[in-house]
What we know:
Layout: E1 14-19, E2 36-37, E3 40-41, H1 42-51, E4 57-62, H2 66-76, E5 81-84, H3 91-103, E6 111-116, H4 124-137, E7 141-147, E8 156-160, E9 163-168, H5 175-178, E10 182-191, H6 192-200, H7 214-222, E11 227-231, H8 244-264, E12 268-269, E13 275-277, E14 282-283, E15 288-289, E16 293-296, E17 300-301, E18 306-307, E19 312-314, E20 317-318, E21 323-324, E22 327-330, E23 333-334, E24 339-340, E25 344-346, E26 351-352, E27 357-360, E28 363-369, E29 374-377, E30 380-386, E31 391-392, E32 397-399, E33 409-411, E34 416-417, E35 422-424, E36 427-429, E37 434-435, E38 440-441, E39 450-451, H9 463-467, H10 472-490
Parallel strand pairs: 1-4, 1-6, 4-5, 7-11, 12-15, 13-16, 14-17, 15-18, 16-19, 17-20, 18-21, 19-22, 20-23, 21-24, 22-25, 23-26, 24-27, 25-28, 26-28, 27-29, 28-30, 30-33, 31-34, 32-35, 33-36, 34-37, 35-38, 37-39
Antiparallel strand pairs: 2-3, 6-10, 7-10, 8-9
Helix pairs in contact: 6-7
This protein binds uridine-diphosphate-N-acetylglucosamine and calcium ion (CA).
Amino acid sequence: MSEPSASAPVRPAAVLILAAGEGKRMKSATPKVLHTLCGRSMLGHVVAAARELSPERLVVVVGHGRGQVSAHLAEIDAEAQPVVQEVQHGTGHAVRIATEAIAAQGAIDGTVVVTYGDTPLLTAGTLDALVTVHQEAGNAVTVLTANVPDPTGYGRIVRRDGAVERIVEQKDASPQQAAIREINSGVYAFDAKLLAEGLSRLTSANAQGEEYLTDVLGILAEDGHRVGALTVADHHEILGANDRAQLAELRRIFNARLTGHWMREGVTIVDPATTWIDVQVRLEPDTVVLPNTQLCGETRIAAGAQVGPNCTLTATIVGAGARVTNATTEGAVIGESATVGPYTYLRPGTRLGRKAKAGGFVEMKNAVVGDGSKVPHLSYVGDAQIGEGCNIGAGTITANYDGVNKHRTEIGDHVFVGTDTVLIAPAQVADGAYVAAGSAITKPVPAGALAVARGQQRNIDGWVERKWPGTNAAQAARAAASREGTADAENGAVASGDAGK
Ligand code: UD1
Ligand code: CA
């Protein structure tokens, strides 16, 4: 067999993700690692990065909120294995429980990577580099370190003649050690056998009375094994979130990464600080994203489309050249060169055709709108099919709900629906038909017909003068009547109070 090449490390035997801690400072009913940023839970980001190493096993150590965490894990990665740590006796204890659980399923050999469930910024590239360095150097363990401006709270990397000698926790550090700015990220690559050996010799003789995983490095170094380190270029990668302020900071950093990526891919983002993009989103070159816009879930935007300002698009497909402004959409498909907004709400099942329009104050749900059809103003269209080239007048409502069941509205091609029409579903308006403004449609409208469904207008002359004499309205009416009389006289006509009859 050939030696593994430098660029392709041997796949790790296991990645262990520690996620048993309580996360008290989140003050939340939701376990810390399930809090989200950029479209995924913190744990989801860590699992996704770990998966890129193609480990033989992916184990998550769960404890606090284990029911919720395990259920979430099953959803995002069915192959990952939760291992329960009943009581949190420290990082060494957590890793020991995980390795024992794996060993019970068969001997492990090779590289074991350890990382945390609350450090979502760590990239697959960095994990991969750690494993590569570890395997190429033939180390017993390689720790990912970072040089940070403020090392408070972290374990310090103690070196002798450049080599890592051990890690000292903040609470156990002498003032000289506390001054060290190279810190332990908590991410490691271990040789599986030596890891097991080191874990078996851990004690809890330290300031916190815990089994420290960090002590394994000291033990292996003392035994004369090679202990290596890889220093991460960008120390932000190893940041964890202990409270919601830190989570917001991680979210901002992650989002800046994503907006930076898409701008380099040819997307114009006018204000990256107010543009929020989930990891699942895909944007084609020459799309434009205007300020205050959130692109969530499996949203796709095709070339030349413009979205924003003030849009929240979730799992929405936007066609090439479309314009979407001030809109909230979810599970919608917006056709090529279609226009949406402002103040438009497109709900799941909405499909706008090519050059279709959903205008101001329009809500749609489970509605298919054909090519070139327009719903420009103030409408609700639900459970409906609209053909091509239709104009649906301002204020048109599909009354789809009878209080118990939902019913469909079917509108053909090139239909004209007058303003303020209510289409009481089930409703059908066939090809080329017209509906008069203000109609309440209860019966099918045949192709090419005009449907008028409203009360006849009746004028009761002189009503205001009789009912409210002396009011402004009565005076205005009288003035109008006398003007009309003068005009009629000038035209040589007979003045008449019943001119309108
Ligand atoms: C640990 C390291 C420290 C490092 C820091 C980086 C040790 C002894 N110290 O310190 O050198 O600088 O991480 O963030 O390892 N966990 C469990 N079970 C436990 C204890 C912890 O699953 O019994 C999990 C926690 O949920 C957390 C992670 O392990 O995700 C780290 O634990 P934490 O208590 O935060 O370790 P630190 O004291 O910060
Ligand atoms: Ca921590």
